[in-house]
Amino acid sequence: MLRYLPFLLVLALWIYSFIDCLNTPEEEVRGLPKVVWVIVILLFGEVLVGPIAWLVAGKVGRGPTRGVTPSEWHRDQRPQYVAPDDNPEFLNSLGTEPAPSKNVKDEALLKDWEADLRRREEELRRREAGEESES
Fold first, then answer.
1. Neighbouring residues of 54: CB distance < 8 A, sequence distance ≥ 6
2. Euclidean distance between CA atoms 51 and 12, whole angstroms
3. Cα–Cα distance, 26 to 46 (Å, whole number)
4. pTM of the full predicted structure?
5. Number of H helices, E strands in the chain
6. Beta bridge partners of 59
7. Confidence at residue 31, expressed as pLDDT on a 0 to 100 scale
8. DSSP 45
9. Three-class SS of residue 70?
10. 81-130, pLDDT tens digit by residue?
11. What's the CA gap between 132 and 119, in Å, rounded?
């Protein structure tokens, strides 16, 4: 199993360099045109000359964006969450919105349920009163 490791490492570097070259925008390729780099990687990949040449000389090195480290960038990009009761925009929107028709429907449904509940309670009272008088 260990004898296959060098072959697998060479293959992995070859595939990585090939895909990296294909995904790199043309303006970030230096030295040769992108098509030539692909051919160099494919032809000389078995002896690692092509992939290493691409990684060392073919690609423009990128530094941190705007001179900040990734942790500083994430710190600046973190969304600031505000609870609804602390958000003045949300609180103002509560009073200005007209009552939607859904609230009217909900009120009517609630009144129907309350009337139904009163009717059932009344039926129960009558049954209990009727059962007590029969005993």
1. 17, 20, 21, 37, 40, 41
2. 10
3. 25
4. 0.46
5. 6, 0
6. 29
7. 86
8. T
9. helix
10. 778 778 888 888 776 656 566 678 889 999 999 999 999 999 999 999 88
11. 20
